[in-house]
Amino acid sequence: MAKPSVVVPEVFPYPPPRGAGIAAAVVRRKCGLQVELGAGAAGLLGGACWGVESMRASSPTHAKAVDEERAAWMVRHPSALGKFEQIVAASEGKRIVMFLDYDGTLSPIVDDPDAAFMSETMRMAVRSVAKHFPTAIVSGRCRDKVFEFVKLAELYYAGSHGMDIKGPAKASSRHAKAKAKGVVFQPASEFLPMIEEVHERLVETTRCIPGAKVENNKFCVSVHFRCVDEKMWGELSESVKGVLREYPKLRLTQGRMVLEVRPAIKWDKGKALEFLLESLGFADYSNVLPVYIGDDRTDEDAFKVLRRRDQGQGQGVGILVSKHPKETTASYSLQEPAEVMEFLLRLVEWKRLSRARLRLQ
Ligand SMILES: [Mg+2]
């Protein structure tokens, strides 16, 4: 029988707690990423590498960086608004393709994940961007739910961390090639019954923890702890790990105020980005400038793909949404969804003016 493929959860703090650089490096060395263990759930859930400290580091409740620390971080990850001209200059002769995370990027992080609505003005900004550039929403949420929030049929949607991809429903979407319009890609469909079962188990097991909310995102399950008292985080993580011990083909990752259970396959937001570019006919790196905006640990997989593509040649732009310094592979930063909207509107205006200039020539 084939040995179950077990992947060690992402264990290092994100962002690292202040002054914890050395400790984080040690943890990274001890645990590594994507390590094939073959040791079953015991290895997957190795308590020393993962737990409430890691949850705390991923979900800072009072992350006030000193001014110098922030200034140094901003030098490494300057504002995408401040460097707007530099970003659009890199797109010369290339097609910009937009990738947008949802929670914390287009909508604010709120206590109730079911109430993470985007504003009408943000919706209009995204609609305007999609008129000029192929645009995809890449989210940890299930595709149907993120579509209910965004409500724009002309976009591409990659739900469940890219494990559920669909092209635009709107036939008139001007960017979609025939192949991309009909695209539906679900690399983890065999896991659906297992995810369903784990969702029910997690609802049951976390019932006694006030504020815990379990969300079925079709190809993954999210356990939100943004409303759980910090004193209960340890108990919550133990409950989740207890359930996961029985499912060695699933892995546990963590995001901002959320624990996530997903299939242990090598598929993430970065792979989804590459898949969508290829579907759009941009497998050739030289004629496209992907721009990815996201705020979470899971968006780092996409930032890494862009960094790899880029190699200093302007072939991809990663923008992290964060008010506080965080360890990131993104090149630029924006502070909050309001700045994301400003960036999107500037992009639309820049494109409109470029077209007008071309018409005059
Ligand atoms: Mg997010």
Automatic annotation (TrEMBL):
<comment type="similarity">
    <text>Belongs to the trehalose phosphatase family.</text>
</comment>
<dbReference type="InterPro" id="IPR036412">
    <property type="entry name" value="HAD-like_sf"/>
</dbReference>
<dbReference type="InterPro" id="IPR023214">
    <property type="entry name" value="HAD_sf"/>
</dbReference>
<dbReference type="GO" id="GO:0004805">
    <property type="term" value="F:trehalose-phosphatase activity"/>
</dbReference>
<dbReference type="InterPro" id="IPR003337">
    <property type="entry name" value="Trehalose_PPase"/>
</dbReference>
<protein>
    <recommendedName>
        <fullName>Trehalose 6-phosphate phosphatase</fullName>
        <ecNumber>3.1.3.12</ecNumber>
    </recommendedName>
</protein>
<dbReference type="InterPro" id="IPR044651">
    <property type="entry name" value="OTSB-like"/>
</dbReference>
<keyword id="KW-0346">Stress response</keyword>
<comment type="function">
    <text>Removes the phosphate from trehalose 6-phosphate to produce free trehalose. Trehalose accumulation in plant may improve abiotic stress tolerance.</text>
</comment>
<dbReference type="GO" id="GO:0005992">
    <property type="term" value="P:trehalose biosynthetic process"/>
</dbReference>
<dbReference type="InterPro" id="IPR006379">
    <property type="entry name" value="HAD-SF_hydro_IIB"/>
</dbReference>
<comment type="pathway">
    <text>Glycan biosynthesis; trehalose biosynthesis.</text>
</comment>
<dbReference type="Pfam" id="PF02358">
    <property type="entry name" value="Trehalose_PPase"/>
</dbReference>
<keyword id="KW-0378">Hydrolase</keyword>
